[in-house]
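Changelog excerpt: complex records now keep ligands as SMILES alongside chain sequences, and the structure block spans every component. Example after the change:
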Amino acid sequence: MPHAHDLPINPHLLNLPRYIRGKSIQEVRDALGVSEIIKLGSNENLFGPSPKALQALRDAAAEAHYYPGVEAHDLREQLAAHLGHDLTANNIIVGNGSADVLRAVAQTFVFDRVENIIQMPAFQMYEILTDMYGGRSVVLKQTHNYAYDLDEICAHVTPRTRLLFFNNPNNPTGLYVNHAALTGFLDRLPPHVIVVLDEAYADFAEADDFPGALEYVREGRNVIATRTFSKLYGLAGVRVGYGIARHDIIDALLRTQTAFHVGTLPLLAASAALTDHEHVQRALQVNHDGKAYLYHEFDALGLEYLPTEANFIMLVNLPFPVTRIEHAMHKHGVIIRPCDPFGLPDALRITIAPPEINQRMIRALRQVLAELEKE
Ligand SMILES: Cc1ncc(COP(=O)(O)O)c(C=O)c1O
């Protein structure tokens, strides 16, 4: 029986940090035998996908024996028109989720032991992808108030720096860097640094001074923005995301894609979702109202949280250890997300959902806190 160590495996793949994803419904059901489970641990959109996207999936399923044809190019054109800012299809790459676009970015730009800067708390894939392509992750600590420390990032830029991963609004904190601060920061970076602006949650941002990456792309900066259909558009299981950048950058990223890279079903579902403005507006309203409701309830429970521009809220300085709260919530059929994989062992992240689900979560949380108080 051959062993892994006998195989000529790319050494970069051998010691990758593990991606710790949120618990699935199946896992909690199997472990605890709880039947009715709500999942608020992975920032999915519990309002669900657009009926138009579901219809597109059904229609496309009947043609599943064909390879994709022009659909990827069509979606790139549609996205360019949707985004405005004088973008064209040549400014867009479509991938199997934005995580796949991030992979394309790492595969394109990370080689020869370059350094990528990651400031915690951060999406785990940044470090994994850096290692995967033989780069070195320069992992900086978060500031005491959970915010990005832009001076600290600038201080760590060296001639070897290649990518700088930046997530706005940030997962898991929900905090954002405003337009003036981000523009000033980009102005300070030397021209050899490429900023990966992960905007997975930017669709939910409500602050007037929230900076969209598109203006930076149009200005011709070294910025690659990544966005997704997994969050606002409720298509996390379908896997479609996209990247936005200058033509020369997109041309380079496209070289990493395999034949027929994204399937026809995801491409057509994303295309249909993009046209369903009414559904999108309702999903945004659900998030807006849910945020206000949860702030109110967390205040009533005496829990501390960070203000969010995303579809989740992070609780901090909890009165009980995070693992105990998580486990007790599982018994009540509610999955939430401990933030230790993001470098914050004392924080919990909860997805904002439609009203009845939020209410059920709050009822469970109230009970759990009372139970833990008694123990
Ligand atoms: C910050 C951030 N970036 C990227 C992703 C990847 O999303 P997807 O690959 O579904 O587009 C996620 C997923 O949760 C995320 O939280």
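The chain has a mean pLDDT of 95. Residues 43, 97-99, 123, 167, 171, 198, 200, 228, 230, 236, 241 surround pyridoxal-5'-phosphate (CB under 6 Å).
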